Amino acid sequence: MLIVMSGLPATGKTTLSRSLAQQINAVHLRIDTIEQAIVRSGLAQQPLGPAGYLIGYALAEEHLRQGLTVVAESVNPVAVTRDAWRDVAIRASVPVAEVEVVCSDQTEHRRRVTTRTVDIPDLRLPDWSDVVNREYEPWHRERLVIDTAHRDIAACTADLQRGIAELLAA
To answer: CB–CB of 15/153 below 8 Å?
Structure first.
């Protein structure tokens, strides 16, 4: 199956995606990693536009066709990127679970933005102003929402797994 993890920077997407992928033995596909590799190659610089996402869609589809579960993680700020992930699942004939990761406590979210460390070489992390002013369209369809505010990763991962199981059963 394809599990699409979306949400603003510093909500906990990467931590949650890694935890889930490890627990269910899935491929973790992170758009930040793809985009930064393109930048390091010297072929482009930020902002890249759709290049990282297009590569991510292709890689996800290839992994899904091999029978692997994919946890695809990116901000997915606009409907067109969210729709494209669904199209990947349709082409690969697999179910899709869409997840929006949020941090409902603004003070906690801001603390995360200002204290997190870079785990991808040379990646520029957004500051609080970047996060607050980022384009992020509201969702217009059902999705699983995981609120990470004041919760540990184990509890969030358990909620995520339960929610995905419920989506698959429906």
So the answer is: yes
Residue 68 half-sphere exposure, CB side, CA atoms within 13 Å? 16
Contact 147, 103 (CB under 8 A): yes
Nearest to 14 by CA among 6, 26, 25: 6
44-84 pLDDT, tens digit per residue, is 767 677 889 999 999 999 999 999 999 999 999 999 999 99
| Nearest-angstrom CA–CA distance, 156 and 147 | 8
DSSP annotation of 78: S
Q: Element (H or E) spanning 112, and its range?
A: helix 106-115
Residue type, 4: V
Size of the chain in residues: 170
Which string of b and e fits 93-124 if b means at least 16 CB within 10 Å? ebebbbbbbbbeeeeebbebbeeeeeeeeeee
* Cis peptide bond N-terminal to 138, omega within 30: no
Quick check: 84 and 56 in contact, CB under 8 A? no
Contacts of 26 (CB under 8 A, 6+ apart): 3, 20, 68, 69, 70, 71
